[in-house]
Amino acid sequence: MADYLETDLAYIAGLVDGEGHICILSANNETSFTTQLGISNTDREILDWIQGIFDGYIYDKQKIKGRKQGYQIRWNKQVRIKEILTLLLPYLRIKKIQALMVLEFIDICKGNRINKLSSEEIDTLEELHYGVSLSNRRGE
Q1: pLDDT tens-digit series, residues 19-78
Q2: Is the pLDDT of residue 9 over 60?
Q3: Cα separation of 75 and 32, whole Å?
Q4: Total number of domains constituting the chain
Q5: Which residues contact 128 (CB under 8 A, 6 or more apart)?
Q6: Mean pLDDT, rounded, for 102-106
Q7: Contact 9, 91 (CB under 8 A)
Q8: Residues 6+ apart with CB under 8 A from 126
Q9: DSSP H stretches of helix in 2-118
Q10: Is 121 exposed, middle or buried (0-12, 13-18, 19+ CB in 10 A)?
Q11: Which of 46, 62, 67, 129 has its CB 3.0 to 4.6 Å from that of 24, i.e. a possible disulfide?
């Protein structure tokens, strides 16, 4: 991880709040879960700057006719997501609840596959997945 200022963390947290996503994704008919953190923007330069601090992968989003090209920086590894969210947490406003749920999810998983967890832990993971999904919904 590169050097950063506290103001950098606050700025990046603002981008996560406004242009980002913090989620728990299900796969294989909800028998497997993963976490993801990402920020979308049409300014590739700002995402390159974030990548210089936190690594991550930058993807070109599908171009929509009449709109600027969009990009997304994304992190999928739980260890990295935990590091980043822990640093950004004091500055997050809108997505603070999602961040706390994802951090709890990561702590429960501890890198284990779902079949190595207790039934209570799996129930908690499913509740966290549902909670993050609800808080990420658009509209009413």
Answers
A1: 999 998 877 665 677 899 999 999 999 999 999 999 999 999 888 888 889 999 999 999
A2: yes
A3: 18
A4: 1
A5: 24, 101, 102, 104, 105, 108
A6: 91
A7: yes
A8: 30
A9: 6-19, 44-54, 78-88, 96-109
A10: middle
A11: 129
pLDDT, residue 29, reads 60
Q: Which two tokens stand for residue 106?
A: 């990561």
CATH number of the domain within which 25 lies: 3.10.28.10
Residue 1 is assigned to a structural domain of this protein: no
Identify the sign of the CA torsion 120, 123, 129, 135: negative
Measured at the CA of 124, the angle between CA 119 and CA 128, to 5 degrees, comes to 145
| DSSP structure class, residue 118 | -
Residue 95 main-chain phi, psi, to 5 deg:
-105, 20
- Give the model's pLDDT for residue 51: 97
Tokens of 56: 């991550």
Any domain includes 132 = yes
Q: Which residues contact 108 (CB under 8 A, 6 or more apart)?
A: 117, 121, 124, 125, 128
Range of the domain at 32: 6-136
